[in-house]
Design brief:
- 0% of the residues lie in helices and 48% in strands.
- The chain has no helices and eleven strands.
- The strands form three sheets. The protein has a six-stranded antiparallel β-sheet with strand order 1-2-3-10-5-8, with no helix packed on it. A three-stranded antiparallel β-sheet has the order 7-6-9, with no helix packed on it. A two-stranded antiparallel ribbon has the order 4-11.
- A hairpin with a 4-residue loop joins strand 2 and strand 3.
């Protein structure tokens, strides 16, 4: 058994300049824990594989393609491969979520 504390997990450098901790990383799937402080957001980008986001805490805006929605705790959002997307925290509290990629991507993320 392997147990990982999300707040103590390995920090992951990223082009968005936000807090990312690597929770799970195998040849088959990847799970990252992200936290956006008020005013922070991801840069618009696309991934070569399907991604889903599971909201742990707070509220934020999810933009996928031309759609934007306000999301909150206990919601799961699917984001298809190769569609530009981003998440933003326009609120006053931290916005925490999991980023789940399955299968694990083998090509680079494309920044917009």
């Amino acid at each position: 058994m392997k147990i990982i504390d999300a707040k103590k997990a390995t920090k992951h450098e990223n082009p968005h300049g936000v807090s990312v901790n690597k929770l799970y990383d195998t040849e088959h799937a990847q799970i990252m824990h992200m936290e956006l402080k008020p005013g922070e957001g991801l840069k618009k980008h696309s991934t070569p594989t399907d991604v889903c986001f599971y909201i742990l805490e707070g509220k934020g805006i999810v933009e996928i393609g031309e759609e934007q929605e306000l999301v909150s705790k206990d919601m799961l959002i699917e984001s298809p491969a190769k569609i530009p997307h981003r998440l933003m925290n326009e609120g006053t509290e931290n916005f925490r979520f999991l980023v789940i990629k399955a299968p694990r991507q083998t090509e680079a993320t494309k920044m917009m």
